[in-house]
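Here is one chain, start to finish.
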Amino acid sequence: MRGVTTDYPFSAALRARLLGTLLTLLGVIVFVTALMAFVFRWQPWVLGVVALLVVVAVVLMGSLLSSRAYVVRTDAQGYRVRFVRGAGAKSARWSEVEELATATVGGDKCVVVRLKDGRTTTIPVAVLAVDPEQFVREVTKLLKQRR
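Its structure:
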């Protein structure tokens, strides 16, 4: 059975927060470099190199956080989770899944996938750019199709 692959990217709020944090950090780096260049009378090209590296970092982070980067990918065979620290099992086939449940972990609403071998995958739904109920419905549908 060949199914459609569905990617669930970062939520817009999380993307904005991550990019804002990166921009703040890079701004501090440029400021400190400029201050050091002034105090130690460095050549102007040093600050230019740092500024160029900052631009490259912003472009790379922007492309990483674009809608092409997924947090959860599902297809007819199984699922894969990326970028979620502490998720547990990062991937599994639907045939390995024991049950699907919702839970609150550390104050965050999560989908918990329990595998037959005792491992679990915990996916905080707030990081996904999809309605939590819709995500649960779609994953449940895929799970039922494989049984």
